[in-house]
Write a structure and sequence with these properties.
The complex is a heterodimer of chains A (about 230) and B (about 230). Chain A is α/β, with parallel strands linked by helices and about 230 residues long. Chain A contains 6 helices and 13 strands. In chain A, the strands form 2 sheets. Chain A has a 10-stranded mixed sheet, with helices on both faces. A 3-stranded mixed sheet of chain A has the order 7-6-9, with no helix packed on it. Chain B has about 230 residues and is α/β, with parallel strands linked by helices. Chain B is about 20% helix and about 25% strand. In chain B, strands 4-3-2-1-8-11-13 form a 7-stranded parallel sheet. In chain B, strands 5-7-6 form a 3-stranded antiparallel sheet. The chains are: A alpha/beta (about 230), B alpha/beta (about 230). Chains A and B meet through helix 4 and helix 5 of A and helix 4, helix 5 and helix 6 of B.
Chain lengths: ~230, ~230
Amino acid sequence: MASDPKLENCALKPADIARRVAAELPDGAVVNLGIGIPTLVGNYVEAGRGVMFMAENGIIGAGPRPEPGEEDKDYINASREPITTLPGASVFGHADAFAMIRGGHIDIAIMGALQVSAQGDLANWTVPGLGKGGIGGAMDLAAGAREVYAIMTHTMKDGGLKLLEDCTYPLTARQVVTKLFTDIAFIEFTPDGPILREVAEGLTADDVQAVSEPRLHTNGPPGALTREETP
Amino acid sequence: MTSDKVYPSSKAAIADIPDGATILLGGFGGAGIPENLLVAMADHPARDLTVVTNHAGFGERGLAVLLRQRKVRKIICSYAFHRSAFVFRELFLEGKIELEQLPQGTMAERIRAAGAGIAAFYTPTGVGTQAAEGKETRTINGRETVLEHPLAGDVAIIKAHRADSTGNLTYRGTAANFNPVMATAAPLTIVEVEEIVDPGVIAPESVHTPSIYVQRVVRGEDLGLRSET
């Protein structure tokens, strides 16, 4: 979000986005966290809410990163980071992990996005060109999770748009994003199109519309996405 | 503790893998990689290999050694161009290695199908993406799906935590990953473990991979080896 000083000044930091996404999760949900900002979401979910974190490399009930020196080589998440397990955790192999994912047993996949379309298409595994990116579990999660929350900066560093009428990057899945959290907006995808729910403090719906290709509907005045002091 | 399945060394366990073999290689991230068997493969002459594994190698060790040695003709994986897979990337961009990249769950299920006698299956994963290009699609119960076929190996090279001498296996933590499903999908499954125990020590209800899927077991020579960087 470097193109417009006003947008840049009001943009949320990754931790602020993660905090907002965490607040959106229903209590008791089984959630898969993708690489990047999504991994931060776990830091803002209070234990009493009963949210369970699933990783596609074979665990439900992943806990926080262990203290330095306490890492166990056999316990990692899909981002290859060391994890702990919480009481009630279970482990399993890839065939089971992806049966759960495709079978609709994962409530929400939270994934980083490169582009999102008006229809909720998701592009997040590669950019055009040879020798870049990787599919990993993204296509299975996007197709199989009951809901997909996407996270991205609203525009590219050069100001290019990422919320588009149609994605130009290779797709991960079609019509799967239910909620999009950017550094300036929270947008919900409905059969009637994208609805602008919240806007970063200091910005207006028009400011967000100006950097979004699809027409954003509003349902009353959008709420405020707040920033907190973050490291 | 000896049996026909327990091999004295990693070298002995992989000694007859032929040129042109398709190898199912277990592991995800740094967990569950048969590190000692990979070291033995680096000293083994077999070439023209196809390797099925989640990542196209890390850094300069493990699978990356075989890539550097140009023993691998093709990689079938779910994640090709991680920044740590620079050895693979370099060979790929020079046109020196083939790549088939597929969704991780489709890869797991294709391997499962191979081991389970399933001729093909329709999956919702990958519809409308590059992963479905050239493949039959079909709408079933209102949902578009892609036809996928089994993915078998000539040999599976996997890692478990513990084996008994009959070949029953247990895994630990998230180190199971692709290992149990790969054990089912090759006529020759070679397992590196950290410990080999007598039959009966692993209770029947605690066995993760039953012995019928396992042909060879070896205790890893250096259990501290880590190829992931």
